[in-house]
Amino acid sequence: MFISYNQSCEKIAMGLLSYVTDLKNVARLKPEMDSYIENVDRKLFLWKDEETDNIVALIGVEISEAMVLVRHIAVSPSFRKEGIVHRLLDGLQQHYPTSTINGTLETAPFIAKWNQKQLNRNDEETSGSL
Question: What span, in angstroms and rounded, lies between the C-alpha atoms of 50 and 9?
């Protein structure tokens, strides 16, 4: 389930962000977390696993007028390869339906795979209706 970050989840969010390679060091992690809390144009969203009721993934974004820039994606190791990144991106698209979703050098490959999956899905739907 796609949910917005709130401060009651701060420790969980920091734990997930620590999976991001350049944020493993606490000296870099804390300022990055603070920037999501303090800046209105930066937001964190979480993924709550419905079976376990645990928060298992996070996506950090920077929002501008027509674009959402995905800065960070982190998934708990035991939940990787389950399609959670795609579900996070689907939730983000539903939350910002008129915005284009782009990524940084680190997150762009995930977004490219997600975009390709969407194109394939749309192609299947189109060919199925002919």
Answer: 16
Identify the sign of the CA torsion 101, 106, 111, 116.
Answer: positive
Q: How confident is the model at residue 129 (pLDDT cuts 50, 70, 90)?
A: low
Q: How far apart are the C-alpha atoms of 29 and 15, rounded to whole Å?
A: 9
Instruction: Express each pLDDT in 59-102 by its tens digit.
Output: 999 999 899 999 999 999 999 999 999 999 999 999 999 999 99
Q: Is 35 exposed, middle or buried (0-12, 13-18, 19+ CB in 10 A)?
A: middle
Q: Which amino acid is at 124?
A: E
| CATH fit for domain 2-124, picks 1.10.287.380, 3.40.50.300, 3.40.630.30, 3.90.550.10 | 3.40.630.30
